[in-house]
Predict the structure.
Amino acid sequence: MTLEAEYLAEPDLVFGNQGEEKDPRLGMSKFGPYYSPGENAPSPARIRIGLIGTGETIGWGEKVIARLGEPVASAHTNKWLYPDYEGFSLKSQVRCEFSVVDTPDGLILPQETKEVLSFAHANHRIAAASNLLTSKVERFLLEDSPPEVLLIALPPDIEEFCGIGDRTRGAKRPSFTEQEKLLAEFRKSGQRFLEDWGLEVTGGPEPPHEKDYDLRNALKGKVMRMKQAVPVQILRAEPAHNVPGRGAASRDGSLTPGTRSQSEP
């Protein structure tokens, strides 16, 4: 039996103005994003971003978005592996800019944060946090012209008590109360309940609190179930304070020197 192999050369990627390049980073810096021959420039020319967070963290988000519109020179001499960042602006090859939607739809009030943190159980806190953030997403989507992207500037308190860390250690391992275990056994044996026929039962024990096991995954799942799709990104406080280049957003909203960047997977 003879096997024949055929070498297929790697094709070039096509970018703006029909420019070609194998490396997507170099192609973007040289030619910008692809647009059809019948167009004069990439579309859209502006991406509207809605911010979700407290008054403080929304300020960080605005600083980060503004910095993304500016070029950042690479600190490496090998520009092939580490090209300069051109910045998202109409003056760069990208020819697209970010703008922040001016609306209070995404504002998280102190009382709302307090309610989330009031739950002693980590899984209940995570569920409360994901529901709060999901409700802010829904408010944006009720607008006649909702933003194209939503950025959640995660409050540090919610990140500490609901994100991945010591405060939520073991939260990804499901745990059940004795009542939940008993109800599961009843259902497993074929037992039916009044609510199965749409009847509301009052006067009994309070229903168990909703549980989520990972804030990021829970939020992702709830947003994906919405009829209107919208990309959602989470901005953590620590990376926001370390934006490279001219400066980074500090906790008081001012600019402080930034030397390195950290990313959220």
Notes: DSSP finds eight helices and eight strands in the chain. Helices lie at 24-31, 55-68, 110-117, 122-141, 156-162, 178-188, 215-224, 237-240. Residues 122-141 form the longest helix (20 residues). Residues 246-265 have pLDDT under 50 and may be disordered.
